[in-house]
Amino acid sequence: MIPAGASVESMTHVPDINSPEEQTRYERGLAVLAAVDGGSAPAVMENLADIAPALAHHVVAFGFGDIYARPGLDPKQRQLVTLGILTALGGCEPQLEVHVRTSLNVGLTTTEIVEALTHAAGYCGFPKALNAIFVAKKVFAERGLLPVG
Amino acid sequence: MIPAGASVESMTHVPDINSPEEQTRYERGLAVLAAVDGGSAPAVMENLADIAPALAHHVVAFGFGDIYARPGLDPKQRQLVTLGILTALGGCEPQLEVHVRTSLNVGLTTTEIVEALTHAAGYCGFPKALNAIFVAKKVFAERGLLPVG
Amino acid sequence: MIPAGASVESMTHVPDINSPEEQTRYERGLAVLAAVDGGSAPAVMENLADIAPALAHHVVAFGFGDIYARPGLDPKQRQLVTLGILTALGGCEPQLEVHVRTSLNVGLTTTEIVEALTHAAGYCGFPKALNAIFVAKKVFAERGLLPVG
Amino acid sequence: MIPAGASVESMTHVPDINSPEEQTRYERGLAVLAAVDGGSAPAVMENLADIAPALAHHVVAFGFGDIYARPGLDPKQRQLVTLGILTALGGCEPQLEVHVRTSLNVGLTTTEIVEALTHAAGYCGFPKALNAIFVAKKVFAERGLLPVG
Amino acid sequence: MIPAGASVESMTHVPDINSPEEQTRYERGLAVLAAVDGGSAPAVMENLADIAPALAHHVVAFGFGDIYARPGLDPKQRQLVTLGILTALGGCEPQLEVHVRTSLNVGLTTTEIVEALTHAAGYCGFPKALNAIFVAKKVFAERGLLPVG
Amino acid sequence: MIPAGASVESMTHVPDINSPEEQTRYERGLAVLAAVDGGSAPAVMENLADIAPALAHHVVAFGFGDIYARPGLDPKQRQLVTLGILTALGGCEPQLEVHVRTSLNVGLTTTEIVEALTHAAGYCGFPKALNAIFVAKKVFAERGLLPVG
């Protein structure tokens, strides 16, 4: 049992995110991110540099290096799961915007994206589905992909 | 503007769910449901018969007949979106159980289902991912699909 | 069981939203919407025309034609339920704004709306209740309905 | 500014929940609760006695004495808002059960309750609406109120 | 049992929020709020004056006077719980902004706040943690507290 | 850009969770978990062995090894954040049970835990606070810690 007030750190070694082993993990995640994201995520990550560099590190090293790159689902399948989650959570429009872009980058069509968000209406209601579709519309407009179908 | 206290019904015709047109919609949804569900949903629907037959009707007629059967996404893709939504919502374990069964029925492998729920951990946190994985485990055990991989 | 990769569509007939039967359903929903909404929803629906016309169709045909117009609750009662749901969900401020307008249109007083959102504080906490009340304030201000009471 | 580590308590007087003024507030809430609840809530409150008597006190004194008893909405209206909130939150089945009973006690009919939960499907999705309807079914069954309609 | 349509008010006395006893409760809460908030909350409360003065009253009288000032947790501990709740709820960025300021006011360091939000990523996912960290960044920037660490 | 249908894996190396480097990360997390958990988590992790060993690995390696062990917050502070998050999410009672035990293990008193959950009522409502307090009551009862205070 740890003494009250003590840091768990005192009993273990937490590797610095700048250590060689963590930099290797980070680079691995960054390669995945670059492959699927097409360039918008780095700006988000840079925005974290002066406040939460460890959070930025773990988004990349864990989220993309450890999880996203795993076999078992291809990127299009992962994006369908992610679109479902972000639509259901609500209030995650900035992340949904990034992931609509990523969905296009990995090969989901605008029709598939719209269909996923329309499908969501039955499971989490029209309001959240509408919020998500208007995020998709913004991204599609930027890329000259409107009208859909 | 409608007078206070008046039902909107007074101004429009709401078709009875037993009308021929609604029965046609219902039959269409039931065919989809039978194709993807493999038999567990009807029991849920029957459970609604003595309390909310209209809700049961619309789950089938709208949810499956109008939405699920649409082109644009195949059933495996729809299930990936649905697994993401139900994991993120939380507290929907009964529906998740139905949809893990449906996911297997439409051809998602146990590995793909597990991978989708593992992927979810990064987007809605470990607790909800763990709740979902234990629902999947129950279904997989019933079908003799453990261990996975 | 459907073959992997196949669309459920291949086994069933999904009516086009432009078919006569679906147009009838849509017109019915539109009549309800016009009666309760007072004119703000059509703009939202038009915004969907170039990206998700089917979602717009079903919001109207299902949400208003099939559900809202049902007997059992009058529009004022439906709006109280809706205000409760949208406040609790969070992140649905655009829809809440539409529904505060609708609530006024169907005859809820500003006092009743404020009281519903104040009541919500005990059930979903002050932060969500405050978010909702500031949406209501915006609508009331537009209509010259401040101060309340 | 308060010194780090200091309790705000040091700067103010927090009335004991057993003080005469707080007992007066509590009694007022208890009278409201008794009028609307029909007897199930006290058991919940007693269950809190050995762990969180202050929480029990405030549920009664604030939730019922300060909020529920306010003018502006009658109890049936308050219950419609509450049913909407608890359905949307999810995971609050024990509280929803109490509030379905309360809804019946204050005069909502089984049809109105079912209609409210059916209405909810469009705003927070079928899964949460189904969870809520099965809670209502349990309460209706206990009271011999099935089938509905 | 209360008659349908009757207000519970008819059976009980709801004290006016301007009554001496309620003003005493309000003043108590205001003293707590002033001690921990450092001045931003009053503007929010004033914003409620012309629409929901009772909600503003209860935020102060109940939220701060009855709950926040209780012994058992010091303000820094209360803020850690609050940061966790607001991050998890999502969509409560305005309240989170107030509570990041309050957290600094009661003595949490920028490092502790960032660490709490980084910790949250594992429990409610990266998207909500990122939303929260960007709220913190805005507050830290206003106070000249960047870079952190 | 990755070809449609391709796994990101094809472009990068995902370390097997049984690799030496991942086992080192896992052992580090396990040491933290053992220090704070007091023995209940391993059973949860074992339950994942035949379905999602990678998820179990990352809960330990990332959640405890990378995040929990970080300096900046001591374990009692981390538990306060976690209690807030799990109470607000709802539907995470199994995880909340684990974390009430962990909270006691790292030195939070029963009074502090109860106070955190009572505090939560104002921010996410009474229903979720009540759900959480009854989880705490179960754990306290098992450990002979009732009545509190």
TrEMBL record, chains A, B, C, D, E, F:
SUPFAM superfamilies per record: AhpD-like (SSF69118)
Protein origin, superkingdom: Bacteria
Pfam families reported in the protein's UniProt record: CMD
InterPro entries found in the cross-reference section: 4CMD/NDH-1_regulator, AhpD-like, CMD-like
Region listing for Disordered, in residue ranges: 1-22
GO molecular function terms noted in the UniProt entry: peroxiredoxin activity
Domain Carboxymuconolactone decarboxylase-like, chain residue ranges per copy: 53-137
Name of this chain's protein: 4-carboxymuconolactone decarboxylase
